[in-house]
Design a protein that fits this description.
Blueprint: E1 5-14, E2 17-27, E3 32-36, H1 43-51, E4 58-63, E5 66-67, E6 78-81, H2 93-103, H3 108-121, H4 137-149, E7 155-159, H5 167-184, E8 187-192, H6 195-201, E9 204-209, E10 212-217, H7 219-224, H8 229-234, E11 239-247, E12 253-258, E13 262-267, E14 274-280, E15 285-288, E16 292-301, E17 305-312, E18 317-323, E19 336-341, E20 347-350
Parallel strand pairs: 3-8, 3-9, 6-7, 7-8
Antiparallel strand pairs: 1-2, 1-4, 4-5, 9-10, 11-12, 11-14, 12-13, 14-20, 15-19, 16-17, 16-19, 17-18
């Protein structure tokens, strides 16, 4: 049966270096949960702590209500899919998939049935008798997936499982993984540095930096309402625009001024006066009759949208996207325009601590 995974104040140190620094997470039963961040942020270290491969200096890891800190890795009832597949080269596909079931001493008939079902799920039943050396990278990854979930683990852990595949195959495999996880309902913790992969595959995402969680939420929350500039810049593309923040006319609103070009109201969590930072996605900016004066430096037609590189009169470069369904005009390079944005969609941060202000 699948388990929830609870992580409480977990710390991992290597000498004086703290790789995981007081992390708290509640991963729900049956959830597809992704640890996302740049190299060295601690995501794989945390995954290995959950697996039992790394020790825990402080805090607790629980599967359901059971504390796992001192439980050996082979007794944690986990499935693991590695970046390098880690399938046995001397065994056939079906022997690789059967390995974990044999270790559990299940009857031969049950093993054969479950292996056949697993191979059918990942659509490689016709390759059952082949050795890994006769398989493509994508086929080997399917073997690794089948071997991991055929044992029906309480928790499935995946460490950058698609990073060795080409771009097209990665998209195909992430779709297969998502469908399998939905069908089987296994609690899955997935590590990646690929933001698009995380957005496409996850129920929730924890964005990590320097051993701490910068934000945890659904893909929509993470993309649309980043809690800090790091998340805004790491997930997708963001334009950062300096502004001045003052008291608004109404309670719960702030007056936001961008140079002498834009003066508007943004709903905020608390009063704040001082320098601020606006984070706007390329699709949240728009060409208007008024706003920040700018010049089109480069226009790129990409079918469903037009990507503009624009240079503000103050010297800052922004990326602005217009969807072709919303416009009939393609601005040429060198065109003089004005840029503005929808205050309800952008994010606003304090200039000093970079704390999020916008709701």
């Amino acid at each position: 049966m699948s388990n929830a995974v609870i992580i409480r104040d977990v710390i991992k140190r290597y000498g004086k270096f703290t790789a995981v620094n007081g992390i708290n997470l509640n991963i729900r039963q049956g959830e597809f949960f992704t640890l996302l961040g740049p190299s060295g942020c601690g995501k794989t270290t945390l995954l290995r702590m959950i697996a039992g491969f790394n020790s825990i200096e402080a805090g607790d890891i629980l599967f359901g209500e059971k504390r796992m800190n001192d439980v050996p890795a082979h007794k944690r009832d986990i499935g693991m899919v590695f970046q390098n597949y880690a399938i046995f080269p001397h065994l056939t596909v079906e022997e690789n998939v059967a390995y974990g079931l044999k270790a559990k001493h299940l009857p031969a008939k049950e093993i054969a049935t479950r292996v056949a079902e697993a191979l059918e799920l990942v659509q490689i039943q016709q390759l059952a008798k082949r050795k890994p050396s006769e398989l493509s990278g994508g086929q080997q990854q399917r073997v690794a997936l089948a071997r991991a979930f055929v044992i029906e683990p309480s928790v499935l852990l995946m460490d950058e499982p698609l990073s060795n595949l080409d771009a097209k195959l990665r998209v195909q495999m992430r779709s297969i993984i998502k469908k399998l996880q939905r069908r089987l309902g296994i609690t899955t913790i997935y590590v990646t540095h690929d933001q698009e992969e995380a957005l496409a595959i996850s129920d929730r995402i924890a964005v990590m930096k320097d051993g701490v969680i910068m934000q945890c939420g659904t893909p929509v929350d993470i993309y649309a309402k980043p809690e800090n500039p790091f998340v805004a810049s790491f997930i997708g593309i963001s334009n950062f625009i300096g502004c001045k923040v003052g008291q608004g006319v109404q309670p719960g609103m702030a007056r936001v001024q961008v140079e002498n070009a834009i003066d508007l109201s943004i709903a905020v969590r608390k009063p704040y006066t001082g320098e601020g930072i606006i984070s706007a996605r390329p699709e949240q900016l728009r060409i208007s009759d008024e706003g920040m004066p700018a010049t089109i430096m480069l226009s790129t037609f990409l079918g469903d949208f037009i990507e503009y590189e624009v240079l503000l009169d103050n010297g800052q470069t922004l990326q602005l996207n217009e969807y072709t369904k919303d416009t009939e005009k393609l601005y040429p390079d060198g065109a003089k325009i004005h840029v503005t944005f929808d205050p309800a969609r952008v994010s606003l941060y304090t200039g000093d601590t970079q704390e999020v202000l916008s709701i």
